[in-house]
From TrEMBL:
Span of domain CN hydrolase: 4-249
PANTHER family: CARBON-NITROGEN FAMILY, PUTATIVE (AFU_ORTHOLOGUE AFUA_5G02350)-RELATED (PTHR43674:SF16), NITRILASE C965.09-RELATED (PTHR43674)
Entries under Pfam families matching the protein: CN_hydrolase (PF00795)
InterPro entries in the record: Aliph_Amidase/BUP, C-N_Hydrolase, C-N_Hydrolase_sf
Domain of life: Bacteria
Gene3D superfamilies in alphabetical order: Carbon-nitrogen hydrolase
Alphabetical keyword list: Hydrolase
Protein name in UniProt: Apolipoprotein N-acyltransferase
Amino acid sequence: MTTLRMAAVAEPFDRDLEGDFERIVKIVEAARADGVQLLALPEACLGGYLADLDGAAEQPPALRIDGPEIARLVAIAGDMVVCAGYCEADGDRRYNSVVCVGGGRVLGNHRKVHQPLREDASYASGAGFAAFDTPIGRIGMLICYDKAFPESARALALDGAQIIVCVSAWPGSRTGAASDLADDRWTRRFDLFDRARALENQVVWLSANQAGTFGSLRFVCSAKIVDPGGDVLATTGVLPGIAVADIDVPVALETARRHMGHLRDRRPEAYRS
């Protein structure tokens, strides 16, 4: 049995890109010392998220995937596989993206497809979902609101993803907000989506999230690792921190899918498009 040690992060990140990199270095060094092989950092950890969703606030720095900042992330990661959210520049368009790096190169990249509220005032939308191979297995990536749509994770699972990493800047409710984030309805939704997407696709699920506050947003933390049965193996709860778990991914998937294989037992001909 070969276990994979993985970690999901709930920490604050902001517009101070140099400060963000300093925080990432500390997190990666601590994770490496703990034997972590796969690390999920939050959405927009390079440059911070949006302070509001009306498009009027200062925008995050736009970084090219072949630029010096992503190259710096590659160097920091070393042999560890690291997923990190950033604002991607592509010509005159900006995307809310997540990059996966490791072994000295970029392994994969995903542009957020589903945009809540007025996020489309700041970002163009991604066009699809695709899994990719890494030294630790086949991975798919989502960003925040993407996970509210079952089709997103299902597309990755059907493309062979064994592990799905979902990075977020998921806030608590802005109307009728609970004083304790543990009681907030948006925290409950965040946790429900994580467990449901893992269970219905019978995959290992890593969920990273921003922490603290930024602009008008208060983030729910709740970084976690969920097994293919929908059980939470580790979580930070509504506090900053790092959730760490060990799992033999092929064995966990085979065990979960042995009798009731949700992907195997699909009846696509019965589903209306």
